[in-house]
Amino acid sequence: MNKKPISLGLSLIPLCALVILMVINVLIFKDSATGGPNQLALVIAACLAVFIGKVKLQLPYADMEAGIIRSIMAAMNSCLILLIIGSVVSCWIIAGIVPTLIWIGFKIISPALFLPIACLSCAIVSLSTGSSWTTTGTIGIALMAIGKAYGFSDGMIAGAIISGAYFGDKMSPLSDTTNLAPAMAGTDLFTHIRHMLYTTIPSIIIALIGFSILNFSHSGNAPSMNQINEISLALENNFTISLWLLLVPLAVFFLVMKKVPALPTLILSILFGLIAAVIFQQDLLASMSSNPGFMGMYGVLIGALGEGVSIKTSNAVINDLLSRGGMSSMLSTVWLILCAMVFGGALEVTGMLQKMADSILTLVRGTGSVIGATLASAIFTNATACDQYIAIVLPGRMFKNAYDKFGLHPKNLSRAVEDAGTVTSVLIPWNSGGAYNSGILGVPTLTYLPYCFFNLASPLVSAFLGAMNLTIEKKLEENN
Fold first, then answer.
1. Model confidence over 378-396: pLDDT tens digits?
2. Total structural domains in the chain?
C-alpha cells in the first residue's frame, strides 16, 4: 500500500477528537464511561482516521480495513485470557479459595500496615508468576475485601495492589513484557533486568513510603475488632474455610514457574477450582440451587463460570466483593479493547501513528532527550495504540538507531520502554491494562490512578536519571 505523506496536523485530528469525546464522556457518564460511551468514542475517532485516509491520502478502503483487522487480531489472545480470567474469579470465589485468602488476611495483616503489606504481597506473587493480571485477579480481589473492611478507600487499595503487581511484572524473568523489551532493543534478558534495578528499586521504595504515609494518616479510622470478627464470622458461616484450598493457587503458581502457557494454566485453574468447590463447598452449592444432586450442583457451577456468582451473607462488604466474576463480567472490557484496537489500527495503517512518533524524534538532541523521548513515546503509544505490547515494540523499533547514534548500550533502550510502556498501560482507561484492572477490581481507572505510586514514579525516576546522565551506560562501558 503506497502511502502519501501525511502532516502532523492531520495525524493529530483523530487523537484530539478522541480526547475531546473522552472528556465529554467522563463529565456526563462519570464512572460509567467505560460501559459504552468510551467504546463509541474510539470507533468514532477511528472512523475519522479512516475518512482522512480515504479522502486526503487516497488509501484503498480494503487495505485500511485489513490493517484494522490485523490490529484486532493482535488483541485476540488478551481477549481470550480476559474471558477465562472472569471464570477463574467466580470459580475461585465459589470454591472458597478467595474467601479463605480473605479470612487468612484478617488473621495476619494488621490495619496499621495494610497498604504497604498489600503492595509487597502483590509484588511477591507477581514476581513468582510474571503476570500482573493474574495477581490482581486473584490475591488482588482478596486484598480489596480486606482493605474495604479496614475502611480504606477503593482508590488506595487498588493503587497498592496495582503498584505491587506491576513491580513484579516488570522485574520477573517469567513476564512476557520483560522478555519482549530486551528482544526489541537488542540485549539479553538478565542484562535488562539488572539495569532496571536502578529505576525500579527507587520507584518501589517511593511507593512503599507513600503507602506507609497514607496508612499512618488513616490509622485513626480503622474499624473495631468487632467489625473484623463479624466479617470473619460471615465467611465461616457461608464457606468452608480450609488451608487445603491454598493448594489450588499453589498448583497454578507451579504451572507458571514451569512456563506452561497462560491459556492452559488458566483453564486448569478453573478445573482445580471446580474440584475444590465440589469437595469443600457442598453446603453452599446446595443452598444456591433449586435442584438436588448432581444437576443442581452442575447448574450452579456452570452458571457461575458464565454469569458470575452472587453471594449473600450477613455482611455488606463481603457481599459486594464476592458477588462478581464470570465470563460476562469481562464482556465490556473485551468490547473496550476491541474498539481500542480498531482506533490503534486505523492510526497505524494510515501512517498517523508513525508520523507522530517521527515528530518526537526530531526533538532528540542528546542522551537525556533520547531517554525522555523514548519514555514519552511509550506513554503516548499506550494512549493511542491502546496496548502495552505495542507501546514496547514501536518505541523499541523506532529509537534503536538513535541509541546507536549516541553510542548508548541497548539496555538503556529496553529499560526506558519498560519504565514507561509496561507500567503506564494500567493508568489509561481505554488501554487493555486499564480496562482489565478497572473491571476486575471494580474501581474506575481515574479513581485508582493517583494512588498507583509505583506506576507514576517509574517513568519519572527514569527521566531524572536520563536527564542527569546517571546509570546511562555507553556501549564501550559494557562489563556484562
1. 888 888 766 677 777 677 7
2. 1
